[in-house]
Design goal:
Blueprint (H helix, E strand, L loop, with lengths): L1 E5 L3 H7 L4 H21 L4 E8 L7 H24 L2 E6 L7 H13 L6 E9 L1 H12 L8 H10 L12 E4 L18 E4 L9 H12 L10 H6 L1
Parallel strand pairs: 1-2, 1-5, 2-4, 3-4, 5-6
The chain binds 3-methylbut-3-enyl trihydrogen diphosphate (2 copies) and magnesium ion.
Length: 234
């Protein structure tokens, strides 16, 4: 099972306490460890976390710096836990705009955890789904993607999942009350079940994850076909 989470609501969590937004990000980073552990216990195979979007560069420089610093600190602190607990870490998204320090931490973490077989933890950093789809299309076409829309759509039909390096998302969770995708895993979420909760990310916990999993277990996935019982009746 592939679960993806848009970890939203850090800023509002801080504002409600009269704290700077960055305090919300500090608290939010602590929750990630708890949720990774809970995901491994829940036998989730792949967990993709949205940590920093391409559009998040548009925030004030101090907030951007805090977010990227926290991310590096998370990788440095958690790599040995992940290696010991067979959690394989990968960072998805653009790499050409990250600092050398952060890149080193990412590569170190990916190398040290490469053998992890229990949980695949994917962290989306400087990530945009539209950008990653375009990149996949460019890779698939030797001469580079053509500008013509029809050709592009034809090409996208041919781009398979491996080109985007993921299986489809089964369950997408967004905390923080907003009901939108914010350019996250647009391709992979084609048939994802969507779960929105008002809980702000720094307040999210293992119970919250279980609640989402229970909700998911009650859904009927049809993939455009008929429910199995109806299928059999025809
Ligand atoms: C999510 O919390 C963290 C990132 C987007 C990096 P926000 O910072 O978006 O928090 P809100 O939505 O302003 O409350
Ligand atoms: C999405 O949250 C990005 C991450 C959680 C990393 P945002 O807070 O940036 O999304 P919008 O701006 O509300 O759509
Ligand atoms: Mg937000």
């Amino acid at each position: 099972m592939h679960v993806a989470i848009i970890m939203d609501g850090n800023g509002r969590w801080a504002a409600r306490r009269g704290l700077p937004r960055t305090a919300g990000h500090v608290q939010g980073a602590k929750v990630v460890r708890r949720i990774v552990e809970a995901a491994a216990r829940a036998d989730i195979a792949t967990l993709t976390l949205y940590a920093f979007s391409c559009d998040n560069w548009g925030r004030p420089p101090g907030e951007v710096a805090t977010l990227l610093r926290l991310l590096r600190r998370y990788l440095l602190a958690e790599t040995s836990y992940c290696a010991e607990n067979l959690v394989r870490v990968n960072v998805i998204g653009r790499r050409d705009r990250l600092s050398p320090d952060l890149l080193r931490a990412i590569e170190h973490s990916e190398r040290m955890t490469a053998k992890g077989s229990r949980l695949h933890l994917r962290i989306a950093v400087d990530y945009s789904a539209r950008h990653s789809i375009l990149q996949a299309a460019r890779r698939a076409l030797p001469g580079g993607a053509s500008g013509a829309e029809t050709e592009f759509l034809q090409l996208m039909n041919e781009v398979n999942h491996s080109a985007l390096a993921t299986q489809g998302v089964d369950l997408l969770i967004r905390t923080g009350g907003e009901k939108r995708l914010s350019d996250f895993l647009l391709w992979e979420c084609a048939y994802a079940e969507l779960y929105f909760t008002d809980c702000l990310w720094p307040d999210f916990d293992e119970d919250g994850l279980h609640q989402a999993l229970r909700d998911y277990a009650g859904r009927q996935r049809r993939f455009g076909r008929l429910p199995q019982a109806a299928d059999a009746a025809i």
